[in-house]
């Protein structure tokens, strides 16, 4: 009977350690994105003039573990109807079949397949990008910094619009709208 309290303390210690071990992944849990401070933009050239546009609605799930970045994951969905070129007529035009075909493909998405540390505050991210029913493998660098208890992720992903059939028919002509497009993102998480 004298051993029972010893077992009880040992059992409590084991339970406490198990709870601590189970709580550690919570620190690497999915981060809540502050969409009011985050943005997804695209930059392209039309008739050799740079154009900057943005997507007003998107969601991001980021499961980031700074101590073990290779276990991190990210998923982003962009609502194509939220595309904003700064002009209502242009916005309406790019949602048509020749461009985004937003009626049939309302969302674009990115899903990470690998993240690797690339130095202090830097990651190399790989994954799949799906736009307009076309999916391809992509890789790009991301910088991460802390700002007042928030994680901030910044990056730029260069793509070719024709890979995703963005600009069909006469719009395949890259002398009017360049094939090169850069997707830029600034994602701020809540503390």
From TrEMBL:
Segments forming domain Lipid/polyisoprenoid-binding YceI-like: 30-190
Keywords associated with the record: Signal
Domain of life per record: Bacteria
Acyltransferase listed as a keyword: no
Source organism (scientific name): Undibacterium rugosum
Cleaved signal peptide residues: 1-28
Name assigned to this protein: YceI family protein
């Amino acid at each position: 009977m004298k051993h029972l309290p010893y077992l009880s303390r040992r059992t409590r210690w084991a339970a406490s350690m198990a709870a601590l071990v189970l709580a550690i992944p919570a620190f690497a849990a999915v981060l809540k994105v502050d969409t009011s401070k985050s943005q997804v933009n695209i930059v392209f050239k039309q008739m050799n003039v740079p154009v900057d546009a943005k997507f007003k609605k998107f969601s991001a799930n980021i499961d980031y573990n700074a101590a073990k970045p290779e276990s991190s994951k990210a998923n982003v969905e962009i609502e194509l109807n939220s595309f904003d070129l700064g002009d209502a007529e242009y916005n309406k035009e790019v949602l048509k079949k020749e461009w985004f075909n937003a009626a049939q493909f309302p969302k674009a998405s990115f899903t990470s397949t690998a993240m690797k540390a690339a130095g202090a505050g830097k990651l190399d991210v790989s994954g799949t990008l799906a736009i307009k029913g076309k999916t391809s493998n992509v890789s790009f660098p991301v910088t991460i910094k802390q700002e007042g208890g928030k994680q901030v992720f910044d990056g730029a992903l260069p793509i070719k619009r024709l890979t995703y059939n963005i600009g069909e028919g006469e719009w395949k002509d890259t002398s009017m709208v360049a094939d090169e497009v850069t997707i830029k993102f600034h994602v701020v998480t809540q503390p």
